[in-house]
Give the backbone structure.
Amino acid sequence: MQQEIGTPTETMSHRRNTTLVWAIAAAAVAVVVAALVWMLVADDSDEPTVTFDGESAVYDGPTTFDAGDVTFTFDSSGYEPGVTFVVGEITDPNITFEDLEALAGTIPASSAQPPFIGDVEFVLAVGDQLVVERTIDLEAGRYTVNAHTAPEDTDRVYVATFIEVE
């Protein structure tokens, strides 16, 4: 006996193939969605990065943190001699970002620490270590994040940002 086209056996086979194609497509979509969610969750853009290119210090990251360990990435790879990055506590509540930026352009980096800067953390990014990741234990307060060039170079302070620690 010959089977005619459109018989129940052929229709079931076609349905199985269609179901399989849809199942594979759904699994592929699920993998893509899971990958996108993972990328959003694992995104390190909240990790602060300070970059110095020889002309300016640029900060990328949040400006408010909870007290405790904060991991920074300091990058002077765009500037061969390298720099010293400084995270310094601001002890005077009246100092503004603009005040510090104006002052930074007038005093050499090799001069004495200003009286309104308290505890500081120095991070060298020089030689074969032009990109440095450092975890710093920050207490509540305001901090400035800067790049300092060497006295034999431009001997200057470049202010990247202020951060608040709660």
Summary: Confidence is low (pLDDT under 50) at residues 31-44. Residues 1-42 form one domain.
